[in-house]
Every structure is written in C-alpha cells, then in structure tokens.
Write a structure and sequence with these properties.
The chain is of the alpha/beta class and 355 residues long. It contains nine helices and 14 strands. The chain folds into three domains: 91 residues, Histidine-containing Protein, Chain: A, CATH 3.30.1340; 111 residues, hypothetical protein tt1634, CATH 3.40.1520.20; 122 residues, 60s Ribosomal Protein L30, Chain: A, CATH 3.30.1330.60.
C-alpha cells in the first residue's frame, strides 16, 4: 500500500514540475515558433503575412492575392514542428507580389499592370493572368472548352482587384477570334492588346474582325500571317483532326444544328477558307433507325444545313457540295447505341484543286 502511495505522489510531483518547466519555457517556445513561421513564409514570398503565436497555436493575418496563397500559407506553417493549430484569418484580394497592409481590414490593393495572356498551339491552350472574380474566370474557361474543342486547356488564372473597364469583354472577344487561328498569342496589359498569330487564310479579314471585336477604348496591336495556300492533303488532315474528337450535332430527327456545335463549325470554316482553291464535299450520314428513304433525306438536309452555315460564315457557295448517304456507309455497328452514335455524323471530303 505504501509503495503505491509513494508512486502516485511521485507522478504528481513530476507533473507539477513539468507544468512549471513548460510554463517557464512558453515565451521561448512562442518566440521560436514566431521566428520559424515568419521565416518560412518569407522564403515563400509572403512577407506581408503577420504571425501571432499563443503557446503552440499560430494565427495568420493580412492580405494575400489568391485562395491558393492562403491555403499554402496555412500548409507551410502547419508543417513546422511544434505548431499545434493554425488559425487562418488571411484575406484574399491583393497583388501577385507581397502586399504590405496596415491591418487585416485594409482595402485590397489594385494590381498594375493588370495582365493576361492567351497562348494557342495546335495541341493546347494556356490561359494565364488576372481576372477580377470567379464569374469571369468561369466564363473564360467555359468559352475555352467550347471554342478549342479537344485542345488541352491549361488554367493559370488568378483573381485580383483592379481590372480595367470591359476587361471580361476584351478577353472573351480575343479568345473567340484566337480559337480560329492555327496558332497564336494574345497579351493584354491594362487597356493594351497585342496579338500575333497564324490564321488559315485571309489575314486582312481576320485582322479586321479582331479589331472590331476589341472594345474601342483598348489600343490594339495586331500582326497576323496566313499561308500562301494549302495542299489538298493539308486541308484534309486539318479537317479530319478537328472532326476526330468533335461532332456536329443536330436536334433529334431534325436538320437543325445544335448551338453547341457552332464553335466547331467556325473552326471548320477557318480551315475551309485556307483551302479556297478546293471543292469540298459535306457528307451526311445516319444510323439505321427508321426507314432508309427517310434516313437518306435526313442526311441530305443535315449536310445542306452545314453548307448553309459555312456560306453564312463567308465561304463561297460554289466551293461546297452537300451529299446525304443515309444509313448506307456505317462505320460502327447499328446493333449498339455506341455504334449508332458513330454512324450519325458529318464528314468533310476535299475533292481537289480547281484548275
């Protein structure tokens, strides 16, 4: 019994001793965590973040430019040995560089210059720069996914205050035109727009369209180039590439083109412009559902709808020929849903160079 009492007393004495030791070391521990936290954040370029330490609990205040910066600051401090909790009170809405603030409630500092770059290669599109809010970011990404089809979209967009007037309209206008280029680069800085690119054909018309689409208060510097002409095989390859992972869709049992296919048709029209010396067949196909005569007629009307769209886009009518083949040239099994979907299609066939 006496042994148990002695052991219990020893534990109590040790606990009390430890408490006072730790309490005595608390200021040193807090100072150490403050030094480590501020140093870690400074190394990551976050000099404007204020660090407060209470024991082993750390609080972060100040303004950072993006949500990612806020999350990264908390992650860095949480990983410091000795930190128990992190209270992340950072406000989002500063410049991409560290922003000094007098208090966490200070108004966000407008970024200058306010910049954005859209770079298009044959396989990918990069969107990099600043927008004022998530609505604008979502609008740009939605437009990019529609306009660039199967191209890989690289999203490097950040949120920041200070956007010039009509910034969203300028970005969407430039991106819409750039989607029809073979490749190109658009750089917007405040109210200056610089665009360089290779267009399929008619450089002057492409330049005029872009200049008209940019808001009038923006200063445009546009330099576009167009190839002298493309061979039949080059034209066919470009058309096949666009249609390989994209499809022209119609309303059910109708020749009415779905609005979601307009961007694809605009890109096809740009390629056809570069093949102005060639006649091009627009070929309509259906699956085997329904009567063969009805399918043949439907495929013909759908091909004619595509021809009408291309003519409205500025393609010469005598360059285009519409033909409907109905269900006679399947490329998939009409016994499966997937196969029937493959069979319902529009094809472009370049016939040759007119002499």
């Amino acid at each position: 019994m006496n042994t148990k009492i002695i052991a219990a007393a020893a534990v109590v004495v040790f606990a009390v001793f430890s408490f006072f030791c730790l309490r005595g070391n608390a200021p040193a521990m807090a100072a150490d965590l403050t030094t480590k936290s501020t140093g870690t954040l400074a190394a990551a370029g976050m000099n404007a973040v204020s660090v407060g330490v209470n024991g082993r609990d750390v609080s972060l205040t100040g303004i950072v430019p993006t949500v990612d910066h806020k999350a990264r600051a908390e992650e860095l401090v949480s990983d410091i040995r000795g930190v128990r909790t992190v209270s992340n009170e950072l406000q989002v809405g500063g410049a991409s560089a560290p922003v000094a603030v007098a208090a966490a409630s200070a108004a966000p500092v407008a970024v200058t210059p306010y910049e954005f770059r859209i770079t298009k290669t044959p396989d990918a599109v990069t969107l990099k720069g600043l927008v004022p809010d998530n609505a604008t970011r979502r609008q740009l990404l939605d437009q990019a996914n529609r306009a660039f089809g199967s191209s890989q979209i690289q999203d490097e967009i950040e949120l920041a205050p200070g956007a010039p007037s009509d910034w969203s309209r300028a970005l969407t206008a430039v991106q819409s035109e750039l989607s029809g280029y073979v490749q190109g680069d658009a750089y917007l800085s405040d109210q200056n727009v610089q665009v360089r690119g290779l267009v399929p054909a008619d450089r002057d018309a492409a330049t005029a369209r872009l200049a008209a689409a940019i808001p009038e208060q923006y200063r445009a510097d546009i330099e576009l180039q167009a190839p002298a002409g493309q061979s039949v095989s080059d034209c066919q390859t470009e058309l096949n590439t666009l249609l390989a992972n994209n499809r022209i869709n119609f309303a059910v049992n109708s020749a009415s083109i779905s609005s979601g296919s307009y961007a694809l048709l605009d890109r096809l029209a740009n390629v056809v412009r570069g093949c102005s010396s060639a006649r091009i067949q627009i070929l309509g196909h259906t699956d085997s559902q329904g009567a063969p005569d009805a399918n043949a007629a439907l495929s013909q009307r759908r091909a004619q709808s595509v021809v009408a769209y291309l003519i409205a886009a500025g393609i010469a009518g005598d360059q285009l020929v519409a033909e409907g083949f109905g269900e006679t040239q399947p490329i998939g099994s009409n016994e499966t849903r997937e196969g029937r979907a493959l069979n319902r299609r529009i094809e472009f066939n370049v016939l040759g160079i007119e002499k």
